Amino acid sequence: MMKKDEKKLEDCPIRRTFNVIGSKWRLLLIEIMRDEKKRYGELKRHIPEISEKVLNEELKALVKDGFLKKKSYPEIPPKVEYSLTEKGEKILPILDAITLFSMEYMANGEEVNQTCSTKNTHP
């Protein structure tokens, strides 16, 4: 029987957050869209190892959870752009902290890229 002051693991804020953004690709997608809107093809070029099926699923989940917005243009061929919402932008300082941690503690003496996107605009 659980004690009164014990919390269920699923109530942990870290666990809840990672259930939403903790997939292999979601934080990377948010990082890639840090500075500007991206079209599907641009995202695919940034992460060539992601399958189209998984990229579609991840984008759909990020839109559903309110981290990205999707704008469709009525043209042929169809044009769709993804960009960060205010909620998505709130994750950027966390990504900056992860980047700094990685550079400081995970480099193992090697030169490390400071960014996962093509721009190098943050710490």
From TrEMBL:
Note the superkingdom of the native organism.
Bacteria
Q: Which SUPFAM superfamilies match?
A: Winged helix' DNA-binding domain
UniProt keywords, alphabetically? DNA-binding, Transcription, Transcription regulation
Stored Pfam families: HxlR
Q: Does the keyword DNA-binding apply?
A: yes
InterPro entries registered for this protein in UniProt: HTH_HxlR, WH-like_DNA-bd_sf, WH_DNA-bd_sf
Does the record's keyword annotation contain DNA-binding?
Answer: yes
Looking at the record, the residues that make up the HTH hxlR-type domain are: 12-110
- Know the name of this protein? HxlR family transcriptional regulator
